[in-house]
Write a structure and sequence with these properties.
By secondary structure, this protein is α+β, with helices and mostly antiparallel strands. The protein has a domain of 76 residues: hypothetical protein PF0899 fold (2-Layer Sandwich), CATH 3.30.2320.50. The chain has a three-stranded mixed β-sheet with strand order 2-1-6. Strands 4-3-5 form a three-stranded antiparallel β-sheet, with no helix packed on it. Helix 1 crosses helix 2. The radius of gyration is 19 Å and the shape is elongated.
Length: 123
């Protein structure tokens, strides 16, 4: 279950960039070729966010489809699955151009004034 280690990294990254503010939303881009199970990642994220600046944050996962460029004919296309195959000529010499992403795309944070008015707890 590599989703647990991915969630751990996401929580660590979000907490580091929060600079003491509460994180309310994390946008994550995950490539299809990463073979991440969204429900497992969401569960792991909630579990690991507990007690951190990320606790209660909404995790939004954007799945990026696999894509490739055929080295034989130059056609670029989305890929349905493995093996990667050119949609035009059927060739198997396909360079991956998308679907390997795994990144925190953006964070939404509480304003510092909100923390000050609530005594710094964010609740």
């Amino acid at each position: 279950m590599h989703e647990l280690s991915i969630a751990e990294s996401v929580v660590r990254i979000a907490s580091a960039h929060a600079a003491g503010r509460r994180v309310t939303r994390v946008d994550l881009r995950v490539g299809h070729l990463r073979q991440v199970v969204p429900a497992s990642l969401e569960f792991s994220f909630e579990l690991l966010a507990d007690g951190t600046a990320v606790e209660g944050a909404e995790l939004v996962i954007e799945t990026v489809p696999a894509a490739g460029r055929c080295r034989a004919c130059g056609d670029e296309s989305e890929q349905e699955g493995l093996p990667l195959r050119c949609a035009r000529c059927g060739g198997l010499d396909v360079e991956v151009t998308g679907g390997e992403e795994l990144l925190v795309d953006s964070l939404e944070l509480e304003e510092e004034t909100e923390l000050a008015t609530t005594g710094g707890t964010g609740t």
